[in-house]
Each structure stands twice: as C-alpha cells, then as structure tokens.
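Retro notes (design track)

What went well: tokenization of the new backbones is finally stable.
What didn't: we kept losing track of which sequence belonged to which structure.
Fix going forward: every design gets posted as structure first, then sequence, in one message. First example under the new rule, 270 residues:
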C-alpha cells in the first residue's frame, strides 16, 4: 500500500526537511519506519510503501497511521494521522426473490421482458466492523461456481456506491428452456471494494411444464329432464405446484381462459 504526504517547515523555522517516518498505532519515538524524501528543502514530498505482510498482521477495523517529519536542526514535528480501514468480511445478502415462480419456462416478468427477474439486497458490514461500499453482485443457477463467475446484477439506483445496495438481474427465458422440471436454486452474493465476497443467499425457481390432470367429472342430476340447473364437479391434481384456476365449457373449446370459471376447493397440490 502506498503512503504519501507533504512535510513543511515553512511556518516553523524554514529549515530543510531531512527525514520522515510513519507509525501504525501508537507513536513510539525511535520505532518509526523511515519514509523517502523527494528533496531536502523546507517543503518536501514524503512517501513509503507499506508491505502486504505488515497489512496482513493488522486487526480488522480502524488502524491509525501517524506520520511525522524532522528538520535540519533535529526537531521532529507533531504527527499527522490518517485512518487505515482493514476489511476482511464480505457483505451479507438477503431478500432474494425470483419472479415469476413457479414458471413453465415461457412466462416472463412482463409482456415486454421475456425473462424472469431476480432481486436481492446486499449490505455491509456482513460480519466485520468496517462498512465498505458494495462493488459487485452476482448470481448462480444451481451449482455455485467460483467467485466472479456468476451472472451480473445491476444496482437499482444505477451505481454501486454505498454499503447497502438493492440489485436485480434478468434470466432470459431461453436459459430456462435448458432447465429440467423441478426446483432450482438461485444463489446470490456480493463483493465489497476491499475485495471480499460474502456468503450466498438463495431463492427457489420452480419450473413446472406439466399441466394438472382432471378426473372424476360429474354432473348432477344426470340424466335430467330439463332441470333449471345442474351441479358440475371434478377433481384436478397438480404434482409440483397448486391449481390456481379451473373452467368449463360446452361444445368447442373457446381457448384457454375463455371458459366459465369454476370454484376451487383448496387442497395441497389439487
């Protein structure tokens, strides 16, 4: 990590800057790490590179870096500080939804979008003390692949720029045609700007291509001698989801949804 600053003795003697050093944590004279100078002058740029081994040893959270400089008379100035944020915890993902589900593989979220929509909320901190901004959200269908290999999500506000983001993705219906009938896991997770990936959160996309079956159709009374009305009953069975509508018609089929509605007596998968 690059560390830089400006040392100046202009307001306190106008001597040349001859040395500079930094500390992580407490300032202990004699224990600082030397920094480089671009020139020995009353104003100098000071730089250092903090090795990754040093950063790896720091605790997660806020670590204060102090920098001070020395003039040609041997006097050290007061340190200036900056907070170094160490974030090793990935963001948390919640509120994953898939719509429309159940799906027959040919039903989009709306007539103009031939796709199912996945929504999720990704937030920092997931488990640690530092709330970094979210920089990426991705999803997987079924098997969870390597980090960064999923299909991308778009932030709802158009830009990943905060520690809490709502994001969405569309899965084209042509991709659903490759899925077997049954339940499929949609897993979503996010990455923060520190590079940490969080754990996945899931929702279920149910693919159902098999229509319900109808049996035990009965009309009462039957036969009838011009009764004013009859009672029509039937049983319908659905193996994956629930039956949401039923209809009847006389003669030619008027088309799906154009028959007379029937009343459902709710039962699980019936």
């Amino acid at each position: 990590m690059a560390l830089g600053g400006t040392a100046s003795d202009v307001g306190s003697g106008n001597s040349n800057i001859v040395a500079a050093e930094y500390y992580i944590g407490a300032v202990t004279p004699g224990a600082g790490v030397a920094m480089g100078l671009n020139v020995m002058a009353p104003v100098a740029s000071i730089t250092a590179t903090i090795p990754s081994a040093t950063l790896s040893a720091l605790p997660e959270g806020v670590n204060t870096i102090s920098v001070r400089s020395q003039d040609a008379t041997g006097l050290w100035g007061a340190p200036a500080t900056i907070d170094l944020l160490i974030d090793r915890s990935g963001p948390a993902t919640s509120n994953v939804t898939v719509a429309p589900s159940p799906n027959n593989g040919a039903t989009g979220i709306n007539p103009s979008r031939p796709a199912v929509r996945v929504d999720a909320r990704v937030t920092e901190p997931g488990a640690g003390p530092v709330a970094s901004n979210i920089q990426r959200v991705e999803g997987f269908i079924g098997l969870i692949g390597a980090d960064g290999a999923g299909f991308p999500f778009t932030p709802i506000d158009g830009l990943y720029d905060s520690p809490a983001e709502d994001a969405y993705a569309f899965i084209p219906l042509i991709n659903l045609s490759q899925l077997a009938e049954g339940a499929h896991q949609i897993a979503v997770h996010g990455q923060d700007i520190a590079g940490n990936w969080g754990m996945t959160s899931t929702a279920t996309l149910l693919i159902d291509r098999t229509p319900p079956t109808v049996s035990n159709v009965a009309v009462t009374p039957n036969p009838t001698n011009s009764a004013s009305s009859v009672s029509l009953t039937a049983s319908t069975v659905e193996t994956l989801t629930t039956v949401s509508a039923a209809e009847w018609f006389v003669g030619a089929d008027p088309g799906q949804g154009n028959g007379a509605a029937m009343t459902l007596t709710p039962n699980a998968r019936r």
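Added context from the reviewer: The domain at 92-207 is CATH 2.60.40.10 (Immunoglobulin-like).
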